[in-house]
Fold:
Amino acid sequence: MAAQSRSRYHYIDSFLNKPGPTTDPDFVPGAPTISNLEASKVLVIGAGGLGCEILKNLAMSGFRDIHVIDMDTIDVSNLNRQFLFRKDDVGKSKAEVAAASVTSRCKDIKITPFNGKIQDKDEDFYMQFKIIICGLDSIEARRWINATLVSMVDMENPESLKPLVDGGTEGFKGQARVILPTLTSCIECQLDMHAPRAAVPLCTLATIPRQPEHCIEWAKIIAWEEHRKETTLDTDDPEHITWLYNKALNRAKEFNIPGVTYQLTQGVVKNIIPAIASTNAIVAAACCNEAFKIATSCNPYLTNYMMYTGDDSIYTYTFEHEQKPDCPVCGNLAKTITVNPRHTLQEFIESLGERPEVQLKKPTLRTESTSLYFQSPPSLEEQTRPNLSKKLSELVSDGEEIGVSDPAFTIDFKFKLIFRT
Structure:
């Protein structure tokens, strides 16, 4: 790097050119560490509110080979906090515009954008990166990348372990965490800290909606099933979201309920977490700080969870979230679940979507000896459908383990059912 462009990082070099009281024993000050930082290939997942901040911070922290992936396009509602975008960018790829915006200001930085889903990339794609940073607004996407990185780990190949730095925000609250797949607590271990949204009774949706969210849920659960049940709802398809929005809007007008907007429809259907610019900036700074420490060994990285809240004042708290032996992703034991043996299999399946520690929406279930219920293909779904009305006590025994899979995840889950009335 030319001396002129390196001068931009003089404040960074003050950390890297000399050891400090808490630097790693393997830390080598000076040119070798700076070269390692510049050569570190980093993947940023998400180019929205957090992603814009993360990309800017990484570029100003000495990282020179950055990749970013996001499947969304820019909406006018993004412009109030996603500062890399302008009005003329509406409708364009977030990843491509964000990359171009940063590189236009930092011309010595290379940012490679990918417009698409993270699920479309294979393990070889993720294996090329030294660090992966998540700035996602979806719990489901976090669980997917977490499971993928854990499955990639080969104990005989240290390079297969990819540190995951995850940031998340919700209003004035946020968190940053560092995950070393298989070695530390993973996102699945911490899933119960992200409880699913409380379900609204179907009778309320069908007869007496009171909130705009009720109208949107009605469109998603009831109207879609009535009018488009042959088509699988794709929450990332703008045409599907527009259809739901129009149905919800008409429903809201019928009951004189204001507040149904396209943006709210997206948020409810995709379970998008709301964001505030200042919270994004703080959490993104924490994430990039951890990535910098991992890449350079200049200071110990976070062990392993930092919580932030700015509701009444600024407050942070760090703690070590422990790895769970019965974690379905990084553990080796079946997770114990207490169930009522009198409940039907249908009721149990519905509960899997509501339990904070599970959150599976379309589970397929089986025991070691038999298939309990298949979501697909249609022939197997029809064959196992009669089990839905049977009591759990008719299908499994107390303490028996079942295997559960869900199309949203790359792994199978194991649960040990304990009967309790």
The longest strand covers residues 412-419. The radius of gyration is 23 Å. The mean pLDDT is 89.
